[in-house]
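Table S2 (continued). Query chain:
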Amino acid sequence: MSTVPATTQRTAPVPTSTAATAAAAPATPLDAPDAPDADLVAATSVLRLHDLTTTPQGDRVVVGHPATGRFVALPEVGARALALLAEGRTVADVESAVTPPGASEPVDVLSFARSLVRLGFVAAVDEAAVAAPDRHDGGPAGRGWAVAPRVRLPWLFGRTAGVLAALAAVASLVLVATVPGVRPDPLDLFFLASPAQSIAAVVVVTYVLAGVHELAHVLAAAALGVPARLRVTRRTYFLTFETNLTGLWALPPRRRVGPLLAGMGFDALVLCAALVLRAAAVGPDAFLAAVVMIELTAIVVQLFVFLRSDVYAVMTALLGCTSLDRTTRLLLRRSVRRLSPEQAAALAAAPARDVAVARWYRWVHVTGYALAAAFFVLVFLPSTWFMLRWLVESVVVHGPATWAFWEAVLLGVVILSPRAVTGLVALRDLRDRRRDARAGRSRVTPAGVRPARRRARRAAAATR
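Corresponding output:
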């Protein structure tokens, strides 16, 4: 999956793991962590900014510092204020320039400038160097293992690769339609002597294919000069290998599509290769049939946009959205209960494009989660309980001196490991949320530059 546009994912045919590409949605200037140097900014200050990127996205402008992976979505007035600050004008001059004539309140450029310092966008204030913010303050976009490989054959991850993947997808459809013997069947997953052995093998194969799926995202992004961050996370109750490509926000929407679809392109090529080998009667047919089913399921699951899949990431990029998932959740929350003042302010400040798309997308979101909940109750829990019972019964019946005992233990560990790791990841996420809450870094904040008096009233209300 990919937090440029969002998050993408890949889910196994058995509820085991997913692979995702995520690009953290752009924050707002006020989402930045605390920084002591922000207090150095005064009305007479002149800021020297780092080399920042600016990319139009819907009715917002995404501004970011690719070296740190921090990006913010600014309204027009914020982007104009940033451009004037970059010219070397004082904060007071910029405030006068961006405040509309006859406005009852000036635009609060001072607070905006201080938020730029907290985000790490400012190199110096009045020629005094600003300390770089802590990398751990970058939120999800700053977590995980940094990966920036050098791609020696970038054409393999550009338009040529896209054409090959599209041809592979078309060829796969033709083979499935014209060659009955290669048509996938759910029972193809059970290709070994016992169901337990088959499921264990499917888990291992899925891990390998998911890893290469993510590598395709990484290499396609690296070909465009965008580094990635890898981490283990989850989508609802699915274990997920996530590639964070937040740096893609620095590119125009259409240039993001290639890296975001690179994983699905790899899946399409593997699917086509397996179908061709089966049609030619070359190789282990039972294993190839299982690979076809695994890859077909992986591609279909990318259509589950409510899980912020690769297709969701592409959809938000092309529709011009910056925080569709968050806006959708706020609209749904407002439908069932009253929003808190902070949530209401966040929804009111959401980009108009995000709100317009969220009005119809929220029903897709709700339907998807309803289906996921039903799958959890009807399939995930019963299958987990069945495998636990099988493991316990096999261990009890057979002694440790028998091969059946150790086979049951080994297969049980392989089959249940994704569920166990998902639980550990959920605990880690809970710990991270509590740590962020203690640090006072709420991500539900209004976007853009706020008038000074309104900001002062809200700050006073927050202290009461």
